[in-house]
Specification:
Blueprint (H helix, E strand, L loop, with lengths): L29 H48 L7 H7 L2 H6 L1 H11 L1 H18 L6 H15 L2 H10 L7 H27 L9 H23 L12 H15 L9 H8 L2 H30 L4 H7 L2 H20 L3 H20 L3 H26 L14 H9 L9 H30 L17
Helix pairs in contact: 1-7, 1-8, 1-9, 1-12, 2-6, 2-17, 4-5, 5-6, 5-9, 8-9, 8-13, 8-14, 8-16, 12-13, 12-16, 12-17, 12-18, 14-15, 14-16, 15-16, 15-18
């Protein structure tokens, strides 16, 4: 990420583009040029972020409602408390989710954004609906595996699309705004799930089954709607004029030299895999997703262990997500405004650690609940922060993947035998945050060193390129 100033701060709080980076007719005055750039970027924001945010929100809800359905009676009906069945059903999702991300990103370019993403949404909506009719935990595990396969490239694909539209010092606020949709809707999904459990007995169907049936049907409907409106890559878009498109491409080209995402080749994959920085960013992302997934799958069980009823556990799952949404946006604004990635991530990692300590070691339920707020906000804010940090390297198709091994680690670390306190999982989560802090220290020292050497040799092979710390 370059260290040049990224332009004026508009009244809506978002970092607006550098006027000098746009391609507009020379006859325009500076003020006209500025207004043209700002209005175009705002139009891109409105066309891209709400829809992609809503799509990712249903993805998160469909992925994470397993814990809500478990509390609502699925655990008893499918005997998930026997041995490690629940951990297995939770974990098996992530195996195809990780393995199929790169192929999915390749297909994204081949079939087009709207066609491929709409296919994925409609397909996993059908699987989600089918989960409402499974007769045993084995069939539930099969559905979870299919869900992981269909959602595999969705999140990295959405991030990939967003990063192609913006310069590096604009992108974290956009990623945060996009991610906040999933945080807020994910929080209210617990309340919605509670309302759906009130349908228990209707047509002879248990309340937990209604969660999957209704949410699956809504996902299918949104997928059909999205097929008509999902935005494409800048060079293929259909909602901007030629002049506006040329300006967007010119800004991105000036900022990082990849206005048109590169094609996939085995040589490029090997080259990227040999770059140690990609692996350390993957380690960071792994570490920050551990608490995020742990909270998603186990927060209701943790609340039950604190003595709350099933109804209270579902309702109390929502407020931490609202707090997290506010925190995520504040830290994203600070990070883009002051061009500080590592520092803002480190602060949020520390909040996560404090939250985990309160959850694991504080005997007072109210303070445990405060810990859920802190750990959820901290881990949630680190996710778009690290994704923006990776933006040092541009929007390469070969790099655009999501290291979600944290999901496997979380679902196996928080074992049924350790319920309701899950102390081994708490220890492991704290350890991951310490590894994340150490990784941030390594990258900060390296980037500082490279920035001092930038006059001798260009970083990342791009003249004038310097890293954001």
């Amino acid at each position: 990420m370059a260290s040049e100033n990224d332009g004026p701060i508009e009244e809506d709080g978002l970092n607006r583009p550098d006027d000098s980076a746009s391609t507009v007719p020379l006859s325009k005055t500076d003020d006209q040029e500025r207004r043209f750039v700002v209005s175009t970027i705002r139009r891109v924001d409105l066309c891209i972020l709400p829809l992609l945010g809503a799509l990712y929100a249903v993805c998160v809800v469909d992925r994470g409602n397993l814990g809500l359905a478990r509390v609502a009676g699925m655990d008893h009906d499918l005997k998930l408390s026997v041995g490690s069945r629940y951990s297995l059903v939770s974990c098996i999702y992530f195996i195809p989710y990780i393995l199929l991300q790169l192929p999915s990103n390749i297909l994204l370019r081949k079939f087009g954004v709207s066609n491929w993403l709409a296919f994925c949404v409609i397909s996993w909506g059908g699987v989600q609906l089918a989960m409402g009719f499974v007769p045993s935990w084995e069939y539930l595990a099969l559905c979870r595996m299919l869900l992981g396969a269909l959602e595999a490239g969705f999140f990295p694909g959405l991030v990939f699309i967003i990063t192609t539209w913006y310069t590096r010092h604009e992108v974290q606020q956009r990623l945060a705004a996009f991610y906040i949709f999933s945080v807020v809707i994910g929080g209210f999904s617990a309340i919605f799930a509670y309302l759906l459990t009130l349908l228990s007995g209707k047509r002879g169907i248990a309340g937990w089954r209604w969660i999957f049936i209704v949410e699956g049907a809504l996902t299918i409907a949104l997928g059909l709607l999205a097929w008509c409106f999902i935005p494409d890559f800048p060079d293929q878009n259909r909602f901007l004029t030629q002049e506006e498109t040329a300006m967007i491409l010119a800004r991105v080209e000036k900022d990082r030299g990849d206005s048109v995402p590169d094609s996939f080749t085995v040589t490029k994959v090997i080259r990227h895999l040999s770059d140690w920085k990609i692996w350390i960013f993957g380690l960071m992302y792994f570490c920050t997703t551990v608490p995020a997934y742990a909270i998603s799958f186990f927060v209701t069980n943790i609340l039950l262990g604190m003595g709350w009823s099933m109804t209270a556990a579902l309702l109390l799952s929502a407020p931490p997500y609202i707090f997290a949404a506010i925190s995520i946006m504040i830290f994203a604004w600070l990070s883009d405004r002051y061009q500080q990635r590592a520092l803002t991530i480190a602060i949020q990692v520390c909040a996560t650690v404090v939250g985990c300590v309160l959850i694991g070691f504080c005997p007072v339920p109210a303070w445990k609940y405060v810990g859920i707020f802190l750990s959820n906000a901290g881990s949630g804010g680190c996710i778009p922060g690290i994704l923006a940090y990776v933006g040092h390297f541009g929007a390469s198709c070969a790099r655009g993947n999501d290291c979600s091994g944290g999901g496997i680690f979380a679902t196996t670390g928080f074992r049924q035998s350790d319920a309701p306190h899950y102390m081994p999982g708490i220890y492991a989560t704290i350890g991951c945050q310490l590894v994340l802090l150490a990784s941030l220290a390594v990258t900060t020292v390296y980037f500082k060193t490279q920035n001092r050497e930038v006059q001798k040799a260009p970083a990342e092979g791009k003249p004038g390129f310097v890293y954001t710390l």
